């Protein structure tokens, strides 16, 4: 589609993407914007023109323009699918039709002139483990004398709760964590020596569900608003010592980075592909499975692309993850984030973490500057990008999730 | 201490307890109150009299009375230790000195006339596993062919993240969860057949800490505001099938109940006792260990007291749990809740869960009505109470955490 807004050809943000984020300018108030080309369109300013009133009008005729004049997307997300859809349809009109340019020109700001913030006030954070290649590889590395996949893995989407309070927006520096890890077989306190990444895709819940009921797979698109890229930083040595029997804790909880732009599921409609076959047939509550998404990720280590994890092969769909998460009656809340698990295909080119890429540190990778790495060094920068096919041959970009490692503190 | 407010001799809420909660009356606005005897003293109303102004005045001379006219304790908790202390000192004066009765009489309401609500907007929820008896018993039952305690257990307080969004206040009914569990060795979906409790003590964080730094054990009392009783409902069959390798998930996430009254740590000063000896000596970041608390818990099953779990024997102190939680640079936020882990002593009389009490279901307990139980039946009510020694021979009560099991939903 065309737009009166100039959009560079290779932009991750064509006019049919319109991902949502939180921006501020010159230290001013945080508010909602969508990214388009090299600019952002302030939705706080757009709403003030009245041009979104029809999309925002509720069943009592009340228009709440203030939902975009907010420091997180949550007030918009809680409105539910019908409002998400109406606002998106209206925004697609507004950026396509040049007659709106006079009213909206001042609502546009260069993306380089704004600061992006954490887009969502995260309620609960769940991390799944739904890539067979990753789960198998981690099993082989962490539990070498046992079958790599446990009996539950093909029966349900294994997952666990992470720390919501340490989710940070792309660009935030990551302090190397310290903790207890085995050195020559003895636990010793110190900075992590095996600091890793996990390239994932995260799903942001908009519509809450009541406690004591569950969300069906078919309600996925009415419940989940959109998707972000996730880097679930992982200290493998701390994790290895602590994780039996209650799962990962300090090895993960120091920081999780997400991309600043939440891509609406509606912008990913053209990326829907059939989900992989599942054997055995899943329990009824996990059916219908829903679709996979054909996203392509790339992991850059100090500028060298070291892997391209393929997302479409995820064994359990995002709809199944949501249904599983709630089948016991657990509620979801607006702002819940659940992540796919490390996106991995055949190694090394498809590995979404360095544990797999370097086979537990045994096979170093060489970066473009000739230096070798097994895990992250202080000063290293990791940038994960992602794209999906959009309508009419366009490419929907996620924006990047990037972070640089700072030395451990005292 | 004496008070102009009438306090029954056996009340869990003597005049030196003053635990904080959120109440409403006749469907009105939720606000902060303290429990005293059979009544509650509205702090929203007390603040309106001006009698708390000196305690609330900040370094700029500003008095924010509105922190008590709020639907959670969070606005008060975020003010930090100096304000908690000043308000407590002032409240102790106000309830002791009869000259304040005319001003405050109308701020008192019978406890039976108010509804209690979730006292805290819970940020992140962490559940520890710090009772040696419990961890050993669970190990013996879940992993019969391995050493019951893993090498990490005496080195660090093992814990994991739970679901903050399904924490509910005492009195909330609990719908029996469904999920996949093994039946004759095969996974099958259905209502949990081994629904259990976990009697715990939870610590509520008031003062936030920045990401990338850690909280020392000596800062425990400036960081943690107070304590509640916790019932971490657990579906043992769902948990057993799902929990390897990432830990408990759906077996726990359907509901966690907490008592409505947050007892300030300052009210527990007389309950401080030396922490148990720790061997091996913990890592430096876990020292000094801080103190244990001599709390006594009782678990009632349909009115029959089935166990009295002793809290003072907790291997890792609450201060050590906090230090561990943050040693990797994870921040804490106002409203974070971390729980002790199942409080257990020698079985059966000291068991804080039915898995231990009935030895995995092998040894039924007989209730006072002659009926037998191994796990929870629909309609069963569990009530956990707790007390601690207070100053001058008084007894500090926690109020109860109670819940009734409803049948699984279709």
Automatic annotation (TrEMBL), chains A, B:
Ca(2+) binds at residues 127, 198, 200, 232. It is an enzyme of class 3 (hydrolase). InterPro entries: Fumarylacetoacetase, Fumarylacetoacetase-like_C, Fumarylacetoacetase_C_sf, Fumarylacetoacetase_N, Fumarylacetoacetase_N_sf. Pathway: Amino-acid degradation; L-phenylalanine degradation; acetoacetate and fumarate from L-phenylalanine: step 6/6. Its cofactor is Mg(2+); Ca(2+). Keywords: Calcium, Hydrolase, Magnesium, Metal-binding, Phenylalanine catabolism, Tyrosine catabolism. GO terms for biological process: homogentisate catabolic process; L-phenylalanine catabolic process; L-tyrosine catabolic process. It comes from the Bacteria. Residues 16-119 form the Fumarylacetoacetase N-terminal domain. Residues 126-401 form the Fumarylacetoacetase-like C-terminal domain. The active site is at residue 134. The keyword Endoplasmic reticulum does not apply. Mg(2+) binds at residues 232, 252, 256. One of its GO terms (molecular function) is fumarylacetoacetase activity. Substrate binds at residues 129, 143, 239, 243, 342. It holds the Pfam family FAA_hydrolase. This is fumarylacetoacetase.
């Amino acid at each position: 589609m065309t737009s009166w807004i100039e959009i560079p050809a290779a932009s991750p943000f064509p006019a049919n993407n319109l991902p949502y984020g939180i921006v501020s300018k010159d230290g001013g108030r945080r508010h909602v914007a969508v990214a388009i080309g090299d600019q952002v369109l302030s939705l706080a300013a757009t709403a003030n023109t009245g041009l979104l009133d029809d999309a925002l009008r509720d069943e009592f005729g009340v228009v709440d323009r203030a939902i975009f004049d907010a420091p997180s997307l949550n007030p918009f997300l809680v409105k539910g699918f019908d409002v998400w859809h109406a606002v998106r349809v209206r925004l697609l009109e507004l950026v396509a039709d040049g007659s709106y340019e006079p009213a909206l020109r001042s609502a546009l700001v260069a993306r380089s002139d704004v600061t992006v913030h954490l887009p969502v006030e995260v309620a609960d954070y769940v991390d799944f483990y739904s890539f067979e290649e990753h789960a198998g590889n981690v099993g082989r590395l962490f539990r070498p004398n046992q079958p790599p996949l446990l009996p539950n893995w093909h029966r349900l989407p294994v997952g666990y709760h992470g720390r919501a309070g340490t989710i940070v927006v792309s660009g935030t520096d990551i302090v190397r964590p310290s903790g207890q890890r085995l050195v020559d077989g003895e636990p010793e306190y110190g900075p992590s020596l095996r600091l890793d990444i996990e390239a994932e895709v995260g799903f942001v819940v908009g519509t809450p569900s009541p406690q004591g009921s569950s969300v069906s797979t078919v309600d996925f698109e009415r419940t989940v608003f959109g998707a972000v890229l996730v880097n679930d930083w992982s200290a493998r040595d701390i994790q290895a010592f602590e994780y039996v029997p209650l799962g990962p804790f300090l090895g993960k909880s120091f920081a999780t980075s997400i991309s600043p732009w939440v891509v609406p599921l509606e912008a990913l409609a053209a990326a829907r592909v059939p989900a992989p076959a599942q054997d055995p047939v899943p329990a009824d509550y996990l059916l219908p499975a829903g679709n996979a998404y054909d996203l392509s990720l790339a992991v850059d280590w100090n500028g060298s692309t070291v892997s391209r994890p393929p997302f479409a092969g995820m064994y359990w769909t995002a709809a199944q993850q949501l249904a599983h998460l709630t089948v016991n009656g657990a509620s979801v809340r607006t702002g819940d984030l659940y992540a796919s698990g490390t996106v991995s295909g055949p190694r090394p080119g498809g590995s979404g973490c360095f544990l797999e890429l370097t086979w537990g540190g045994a096979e170093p990778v060489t970066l473009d500057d000739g230096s070798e790495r097994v895990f992250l060094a202080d000063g290293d920068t990791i940038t994960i990008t992602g794209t999906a096919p959009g309508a009419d041959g366009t490419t929907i970009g996620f924006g990047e999730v990037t972070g640089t490692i700072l030395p451990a503190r005292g």
